[in-house]
Amino acid sequence: MPQLLRNLMLRAEKTVALLDLMQPVLLLVIRLYVGWIFMRSGLTKIDDWGTTLALFNDEYQVPLLPPALAAVVGAAGELLLAPLLVIGFAGRFAALGLFVVNAMAVASYPALFQFECPAAIQSHFFWGALILVVAAFGPGAFSLDALFKRRIAQTT
């Protein structure tokens, strides 16, 4: 094997090892960021419930749910799942739940769904991609899920 190829492979292995070390930190940053976005949205909804109900009645078009129920489900999803994601408790469940909340937001807001507001749709796609990273890889080493897993492994 030529020396140049060996050197490239060694550098690639070192880069991969460094990225593996960074994965728990990156997953934590993703969880904190996405959790903050959705928690803030949920708090905004309950801060002015009258406006929230008006938006769900007049602006949003949530499929299959009456507007008042959709408002409750949306706010509850954001306010319950975001903290779970942040602390990494039932992290994959929380991520998938927030993915559904995010998908419903995109599907139920006509301006987003019709791409009339490109910055907003890009934000939702970005958040959805980050959420899927957590769903695929789990919440990482800096999570309650990982702590519980280590504790269970120690007792067996």
List the helices and strands and how they pair.
Layout: H1 3-47, H2 49-58, H3 67-87, H4 91-108, H5 110-113, H6 118-137, H7 144-155
Helix pairs in contact: 1-3, 1-6, 2-3, 3-4, 4-6
Please describe what this structure looks like:
This protein has 156 residues and is an all-alpha fold. The chain has one domain (23-155). 83% of the residues lie in helices and 0% in strands. It has seven helices and no strands. The protein has helices spanning 3-47, 49-58, 67-87, 91-108, 110-113, 118-137, 144-155. The protein is flat, with a radius of gyration of 20 Å. The N and C termini lie far apart (46 Å). The relative contact order is 0.14. The mean pLDDT is 92.
Q: What is the gist of this entry?
A:
The chain has one domain.
Kindly list the characteristics that best describe this protein:
single chain; mainly alpha; 7 helices; 156 residues; flat; 83% helix
Global structural class: mainly alpha
The tally of structural domains comes to 1
Spatial shape: flat
Tally of separate helices: 7
Order of helices and strands: HHHHHHH
Distance between the termini: 46 Å
Q: What number is the mean pLDDT? A: 92
How much helix, percentage-wise, in residues? over 70%
Q: Please give the number of β-strands.
A: 0
Largest sheet: none
Gyration radius, rounded: 20 Å
Low-confidence blocks of residues? none
Instruction: Bin the strand percentage.
Output: under 5%
